[in-house]
Design goal:
- By secondary structure, the protein is mostly beta strands.
- It has one helix and six strands.
- Strand 3 and strand 4 form a beta hairpin.
- It is elongated, with a radius of gyration of 15 Å.
- The mean pLDDT is 89.
Length: 94
Amino acid sequence: MAKLKARGRTEIVRMTRESNEIKKLYDDDKNPRVWARNTIALMSDRKILEKRDVRWQDGSKHSYGWKVVQTVRADVTPEQFTAFYAKQGYEVSR
């Protein structure tokens, strides 16, 4: 699991996407997922971190924690990052 403040890095942009779609993970699933939020963050060391939070029908919650999913090129600006993920349904948070 990655840390947001590891090695002195700072967060440049954070974006989130929420889903209220009921989704069964398996055919015999008696406790389907009823809510999910994906959060991505562009960090000062050019890493993209992602976190997934979910809520199931019985009311239980879980966060999968931050994970490094990609490193962006040095010429990618925060505006380009924001525009790319906005096309995929993410919104700037904070």
